[in-house]
Every structure is written in structure tokens, then in C-alpha cells.
Amino acid sequence: xxxxxxxxxxxxxxxxxxxxxxxxxxxxxxxxxxxxxxxxxxxxxxxxxxxxxxxxxxxxxxxxxxxxxxxxxxxxxxxxxxxxxxxxxxxxxxxxxxxxxxxxxxxxxxxxxxxxxxxxxxxxxxxxxxxxxxxxxxxxxxxxxxxxxxxxxxxxxxxxxxxxxxxxxxxxxxxxxxxxxxxxxxxxxxxxxxxxxxxxxxxxxxxxxxxxxxxxxxxxxxxxxxxxxxxxxxxxxxxxxxxxxxxxxxxxxxxxxxxxxxxxxxxxxxxxxxxxxxxxxxxxxxxxxxxxxxxxxxxxxxxxxxxxxxxxxxxxxxxxxxxxxxxxxxxxxxxxxxxxxxxxxxxxxxxxxxxxxxxxxxxxxxxxxxxxxxxxxxxxx
Amino acid sequence: xxxxxxxxxxxxxxxxxxxxxxxxxxxxxxxxxxxxxxxxxxxxxxxxxxxxxxxxxxxxxxxxxxxxxxxxxxxxxxxxxxxxxxxxxxxxxxxxxxxxxxxxxxxxxxxxxxxxxxxxxxxxxxxxxxxxxxxxxxxxxxxxxxxxxxxxxxxxxxxxxxxxxxxxxxxxxxxxxxxxxxxxxxxxxxxxxxxxxxxxxxxxxxxxxxxxxxxxxxxxxxxxxxxxxxxxxxxxxxxxxxxxxxxxxxxxxxxxxxxxxxxxxxxxxxxxxxxxxxxxxxxxxxxxxxxxxxxxxxxxxxxxxxxxxxxxxxxxxxxxxxxxxxxxx
Lengths: 381, 329
Fold this sequence. Notes:
The complex is a heterodimer of chains A (381) and B (329).
Chain A: H1 2-12, H2 33-36, H3 52-55, H4 61-71, H5 73-98, E1 114-123, E2 126-135, H6 159-195, H7 197-212, H8 215-228, H9 238-250, H10 252-266, H11 269-276, H12 281-317, H13 329-334, H14 340-345, H15 347-375
Antiparallel strand pairs in A: 1-2
Helix pairs in contact in A: 4-15, 5-6, 5-15, 6-7, 6-9, 6-10, 6-12, 6-15, 7-10, 8-9, 10-12, 12-15
Chain B: H1 2-29, H2 34-44, H3 51-60, H4 67-79, H5 93-97, H6 100-130, H7 135-149, H8 152-166, H9 185-223, H10 226-233, H11 238-260, H12 262-267, H13 270-275, H14 281-291, H15 294-322
Helix pairs in contact in B: 1-15, 6-7, 6-9, 7-9, 8-9, 9-11, 10-11, 11-15
């Protein structure tokens, strides 16, 4: 509700004085010049004598945010990009086999042919033909064709199918890691901000220490630790552990954000009012504090979804994340760090996963950017 | 002020102790340390490895004893100025890290990249802010967001493939062309610069985005403030309003941000350097980490941690210097 009032005040600045006596719960919007072009829902004034209720539209803060969000073309683009990727990754492996395009994530195409290369050799007793037989049992690095929409990689596995499975992994992993990081950050930041004093000091110093630890080197160290103990964790669970550890080290950013917001909000009049009304601590926290921090948290989470995907793919590229033969977008690119011939000749092997990473991260960044604009009550758009 | 700085330095030292303890513990927890790998290699080579020899080896590398013991040993050595010798090369770590090839290369790349980053990102941020919600704003935003979203390894390899392999404009990798003997220093530098071009380009494009967004946000905030309205109201030219009144205030976070750059100038771009086979500190540390070279990893990371602690402190102090409204307490 508090946020609602803030929004109301901000919107009111745009409005004429005659509407200011409206109830505070109502969000009053009037078609301003900039809104007329793209907001047909607003009703225009008719010669200054129109009834008030025609000018007044009731809008909840959520609806306002949504409307502002969907007004930005970039956020819609981001949403479309991500939905497309999600559909591709989750429904793709279900639909494709039904359409007769049936390759598994780690299935090797063994339909390779036997190649005969004849050579004419000049010998002492005249010339004769020598035939070199190459057994390409594995259809590796196949070109783009109907059997393999994007060809196959150096192990003869279908790239198009692996893109889908890699997408499942990369996307779900980033969500898991972001939720874990945010949870830790919100709890720690919340405790620090709400209680203050010694607790605050300890948590903030811990944050300082963790921020000083360089993340990528740390992940490399932990990656090698896991690498050396193959019996400890199953290979396909490996990246989950790694991302979990990453969350353990990357919550300070969120904690600082939450703490800062709480410290700021604690001093606001309505919090004093809530305390004076005798509300319990839990009601003050969950009904008054959290809804006001939520916008910043959501924006920061959306943006970190993108960076988590980047992290995951970087780790996989370094050979620390998802292990071959299992697919992730980073692992699929890894091969070019070892084989420059693939880098030069087989763009279809490493291009598509890279594009997928870019689309995913860009999608999250567009949405995060749009949300930030939409949730900012100072923006009048 | 003086008291504040002293207090902050004290806290920073505590932080550094915490960082070093965590790092050292993690490193020692690595199950295959350097010695174990060496013994495995010796075994495979058919050498006769006795238990006594293994013990000797651990002792020689200072890895015998508990983690706590090892940590305090390390600490004691550091305070007496001894950062240890690299396990891999056997040379003193300080000399390994602080030479022109390693930190020099990384600094060269990072410094030039930072200059370009500022030169490109700040004007872009200002135009995006002054033309908010226009086509120009959209185009700039989309391009820099794409820049942020690029995975460094993918983008680096792509540039390498396109400009080095396909077009042949730049050398594929490495620091210098071994087939050329330089006639003079100019030629040597030109070759060096040609090798550095693609890595610098990669770093610049990846880093423009966040700085441009920062400039844009700050500029928008300033443009909405009262004194800008006043400046416009008294009839100043728009140019003057933006570059004299608004931009100067946008400079505050930009200038304080400079201090925060200190660690990134020396840390080296790990991925970019390894993509382009540069001998910078980043790829060197990457290699040390995969092989468990504890002295190198400790020194490198503590060096960076120290720099970032100093950077944060300087940034706060700069704030007070640049913005008279900020009072340090």
C-alpha cells in the first residue's frame, strides 16, 4: 500500500488540480500528451466538461508496472527471446522424436561410411593403384543436412538435439543458483539491516571478505577439488554442486542491497507509523518492509540470471562444469579451445551454442532493464 | 578524517587476514596437490618412489603439517618478505608475477582497454540520456546490452576466427611474431600492438555496457534535478546546460569509479588472455590454479585482494574529495 501511495503522488504531479481530491487508494492517470499515442485506454477530456469518472482509471500498482513493462519494446523482445528458448529446450526433446528427428543427448551417430581414397603409386614394376580405406564409423563433424539440422560435433553427436538439452541445463541451473544466492542474500541482508549493531557488523565484514575473494579463481580451485574426487559426486551432478558453491560465495551483493534498502526504509515515516500503530515485527517486516524492497530484489535477480548463465558457460568452457558427453552450451563450445581446425572450419559446431548463450543472457538483461524502468516510481512514462 | 582512514585501514587488514585464511584452507583442501601429481608422474615414469621420499617431498614444498600450521608458516614468511617459490618453475613468485611479460602485458591490455572504454561509454551514455526513449537511446542500449551479454570466450574466439583466421588482418595468437627480426624499437612495438589489438577489442566491447548504463542512469538523475531546471529557465544554451551543469555532476560517480578500477587493471583478463595465448598474469594464474601451485595462487589472489581493498577505500575517500556534501565519519 505504501508503494501505492508513492506512485499516486508521483502520478498526481502530472495531473490537474481538480483531480487531487480523489481518494488516495486510487491511482489517477490522465492522458498526458506522451501517452495519447500509444495508450488507447485513456479517455480524452471532452471540452473540459467531461465527468470526472471518465478521466479516472483505477489501477493497482501491479497493473501499472505491467503496463509500463509491456510498453517497452525491449522488454517484450526479451520476453519473446526467453520464451522461445524455454519452449525450444523443454518441448523440443519431446516434440522432435515425434516428428522423426530422433537423436539423444549423448547418442553418437554411427552411420558413417567407409571411405576409399585411391592413390596412383609409381613403383619399380610400373605403376599401381593403392587404396587407403578410412573407416569413419562415427559420423563426426557432419555438415548441415536434413538428418542433422545443425550437423554433428567431433564425437558424432547431433548438435541441434544437444542444444536443447544444454538449454535445459543452463537455464535451470541459472535459476537454481540465482534463487539460492538471493535467498542467502535476503536472509543475511535482512538480519543485518533489521537488527543492526554487532550482528550487522559481523555480517558486513563477512561480506567484505567474500567480495574480496575473486570468484573465477575460487571456482577453478573448487572445480579441481571436485575433479580429483570422481567418486564423491556423480559426474552429472557436478555442475549443480559447483553452482551451489558459487551461490555460497556470491550472496554479498544481494545482502548489501537488501540491507541498504532496509536501513533506508526503516527511517521512513510510514515505518514509524506502523510501529506506533503497535503492529508486530513480523507484520512490519512482511507487509510493510518486504513489498517495498521487492522491486529492487526482482530487478537484481533478473539481471543476475544472465550473469549466472555466463558463469556456468565459462566454467564449462574451462572444462570444469558439465562434463562431456553431457551437454551444456559452454561445454559445446569448449572443443574449439583444443582444436583450432574446428574453430576455423566448423562454425556450425560452436556458433549455435554461443548464439543461444547470447540470446538467453540478452533476454534476461532486456527484461531486467525493462523491469527496472517499470518498477521505478520516478519514471513517468 | 585521519581517524577515519586509520580505522578503515585496520578493518582492511582484518579483511585481508580473513581472505588469506579462507584461500589457504581451500587450497590445502585440494585433494590432488602438486606433490601428489608429481609423484604420480614419477611413478608412471617408472621411478622407485619410497614413502620416505614422499615425506621428504611434502616437507620440501612446505605441505607437511596441518593446515593451521601451514597457514601460519605462510604468514610468517610473507611478513619477512618471502612469498615463496613457484612449484612449477622453481623461481621466486614475486619475480614470476611482477615482470614485464606477465603483469606488464596484462596492465598494457587493461589500461588501453580502460581508456577506450571511458572514451566510448561516457559519450554514449550522455547521448542516450539526453535523448531518452528516442531511437538513438534504443539503438545504443541494444548494442551495449549485447556487449554485456557476450560470453568472453565465445566472442574472443569469434573475433579470432574472423579477423585472424579468415581475414588475416591480425595475428592469431601469441605475443610476437617469431619469424620477424625487428630492425628497431618502433617495429617491435608495432608488432606487439598488432598482437594486442584483438584482446583489447574483446575487453573493450565486453566492458563498455556497464559503464555506459551507469553514465546514462547518473545523467538522467542529474537532468531531473532542480538546478538543471534553473539553468534552463535562465535561458542557458542546451549545450551549456548539459556539458557544464549536468556532466560535471555526472562526473562524481565516474571519478570515484576510477579507484575501483585499480584491481581490474592488474588482475588480467583470464579468459581473454588464454583465448589469445597471451602470457599475461591472467592466463598464468589460470595455469597455476589448474596445477595447484599454491605460492603463486596465494600471492596472486592476495595481491588482487589488497588492491581491491585499497580501491574501495580510495573510492570512498575520493567521494569526500569530489563531492563536498559527503562527510566521512
